[in-house]
Design goal:
Elements lengths: L1 E6 L2 E6 L4 H7 L23 E4 L2 E4 L10 E3 L3 H17 L14 H9 L22 E3 L9 H5 L10 E4 L6 E4 L1 H5 L3 H10 L5 E3 L12 H4 L2 H8 L3
Parallel strand pairs: 1-5
Antiparallel strand pairs: 1-2, 3-4, 3-5, 6-9, 7-8
Pfam family, one: Fer2_4
InterPro entries: 2Fe-2S_ferredoxin-like_sf (IPR036010), 2Fe-2S_ferredoxin-type (IPR001041), NAD-red_Hydgase_HoxS_gsu (IPR016214), NADH_UbQ_OxRdtase_75kDa_su_CS (IPR000283), NADH_UbQ_OxRdtase_ferredoxin (IPR054351), NADH_UbQ_OxRdtase_Gsu_4Fe4S-bd (IPR019574)
Cofactor: [4Fe-4S] cluster
């Protein structure tokens, strides 16, 4: 069923129950996200895609569109909420962008640019974490994990369907863990896919890392907003 809704004053049509974040992008309106992957189940963990739906703040990846819906993406208060959420992700970990292997291709870094973040309004926590080198193929740099859970939900053993990654603990004690036996069975292709699926530089392929050196900062040349709309044929 085709329905009509309004996004930032623009009337658009969509199929009922489509995800709001997809409908917005299909109509040239970019909403940042760090956990959502188009075509995959919604996680709703990062909340960075928050916008105002019928006057109430909601994560747009979790919202199915409906007829007559009124959405505000770029009104000032909502933009500042998204910026604050990104700032909190930066202070909760240790994101040293100049020395990070994913600098220039990092989704968190790109969304920081997109939201206009220069420095966080929140105090930095400087958590003490421990990298995990046990796998023969994967290095986990826990400093950078933002607990988006993409790896937990979308990276699985291809024979058994078992999860290779999981989140252990809660709150400040939470950390990303890896099933070493399953990780060691992963093909090089699957390890690369996991590394690219991670929005930050937490999952790294041992001995290789990324095929392009640090410094090819694609999001400084072209914004993540432009890349997202181009990818979807807009």
């Amino acid at each position: 069923m085709t329905i009509t809704l309004t996004i930032d004053g623009k009337e658009v049509t969509a199929e009922e129950s489509q995800s709001l974040i997809d409908v917005a992008l299909d109509n040239g309106i970019y909403i940042p996200s760090l956990c959502y992957e188009r075509g995959k189940p919604c996680l709703g963990t990062c909340r960075v895609c928050t916008c105002k739906v019928n006057g109430t703040n909601a994560a747009s990846c979790t919202v199915p569109v409906s007829d007559g819906m009124v959405v505000e993406v770029n009104e000032p208060e909502t933009k500042d909420i998204r910026k604050a959420l990104v700032e909190m992700l930066f202070v909760e970990g240790k994101h040293n962008c100049p020395s990070c292997e994913k600098s220039g291709r990092c989704d968190l870094q790109a969304v920081g640019y997109e939201t206009g973040m220069m420095v966080s309004r929140f105090p930095y926590r400087f958590p003490v974490t421990q990298a995990d080198f046990r796998s023969e193929k994967i290095w986990l740099e826990r400093d950078r994990c933002i607990f988006c859970q993409r790896c937990v939900e979308f990276v699985k053993d291809r024979e058994t369907g078992r999860k290779i990654f999981n989140i252990d603990g809660r709150g400040t004690n939470a950390r990303i863990e890896i099933d070493v036996a399953l990780a060691d069975k992963m093909s090089d292709e699957q390890v690369t896919e996991a590394m690219e699926l991670c929005p930050v530089g937490c999952i790294l392929k041992k001995g290789v890392g990324f095929d392009a050196p640090i410094g090819r900062r694609k999001f400084e040349v072209e914004s993540v907003r432009e890349r997202a709309t181009e990818r979807d044929g807009k």
